[in-house]
């Protein structure tokens, strides 16, 4: 029976698992707990192909427990009950270790069906998810589990796995198979930290060895064929989407045009033009704001051009917009102002609008006192006159604080002078 190369390469010991040393090193709490014979409910969170299933299998072997595997995309409550019926039987004398892959696809009722069994310890649950468990796993499960985050595997850590896979594939094919350093680097860097994807690439390459040859060497060109466009993890509804958008905005806010261009490139490579455009418009007002207000119409023009052009040409105006935003002076004063005002309104801090500001363009308005004492600023020096605009309950509130940048400070100086020289309407 044919066995996938990924299964043949799968580690049998913690020391063989690559890229997760922060969890699996011998001095870690995780390892020390297992070495002491203690095993608890766990949630493995991380991208595909980084060792979550492998580590669960090693745990089952080390603790001499029967391992049952379910995938939440196809499993049902009936499957869980069937496994639970094995508790205490001959096939599960030391207890059951249930590995539930993609737990985020279980609804609340399905997840709660596990509680009775993990509460009394008859089942130890190891659930895995590629999505943030704090968003997708219900609190009842989270509170009874420890979350361990698995990381994408670095290119350097992947290389030994790839070489091992080539060696096993060579033995299976009965033909000496080598791989050039350049091809090794391409596969290691081109699989986005996914061990399974790298090994599958090796399996495909080694299965294409011509018949009748005495030896074979995998070249860089062949490696590029099987790894093209595979390095980036992206899902418009998943963590990667929001992480890239977050990194883009924080890079712009931090005035790093190189990092900002990198994260923009990742969005555009995933063909996510709408998200890139929307976030650039947000940043123009939130992070550059009053320090360079012209950024808003400029970025809007770049976004309009990008949407009209479409990809790949859209990268040009969007690249311009990102560089402009990253290198522009920064101010979040207007953003802080509206956030503060919104918070007050949400908290019910409003109050009645002053009578002199209310609409007076209807018969009977004067009888109600609407607009009678309103002072028309254009009738005064500098087009300014002192009068109350906020409701009485908020009359001393300040939402907008001038930023420290050159433009806002110049504006502040102007208004300080105007208000100092303003006419007193009471005289």
Order of helices and strands: HHHEHEHEHHEHHEHEHHEHHHHHHHH
How many strands, which pairing sense, and closed or not: the largest β-sheet? 5 strands, parallel
| Helicity, as a percent range | 40-55%
The secondary structure category is alpha/beta
Q: Give the radius of gyration.
A: 31 Å
Kindly state the number of beta strands: 7
Strand content: 5-15%
Distance between the termini: 101 Å
What does this structure look like?
- With 427 residues, the chain is of the alpha/beta class.
- It has 20 helices and seven strands.
- A five-stranded parallel sheet has the order 2-3-4-1-5, sandwiched between helices. Strands 6-7 form a two-stranded parallel ribbon.
- The longest helix is centred in the middle third of the chain and has 19 residues.
Notable features of this structure?
427 residues; alpha/beta; 5-stranded parallel beta sheet; 20 helices
Secondary structure layout plus pairing:
Elements: H1 5-9, H2 21-24, H3 29-35, E1 42-45, H4 52-62, E2 66-71, H5 77-84, E3 96-101, H6 108-112, H7 115-119, E4 123-129, H8 133-136, H9 139-142, E5 146-149, H10 155-173, E6 177-179, H11 181-190, H12 195-207, E7 216-218, H13 220-227, H14 239-253, H15 257-269, H16 273-288, H17 295-309, H18 315-327, H19 333-346, H20 406-420
Parallel strand pairs: 1-4, 1-5, 2-3, 3-4, 6-7
Helix pairs in contact: 10-11, 10-12, 11-13, 12-13, 14-15, 14-16, 15-18, 16-17, 16-18, 17-18
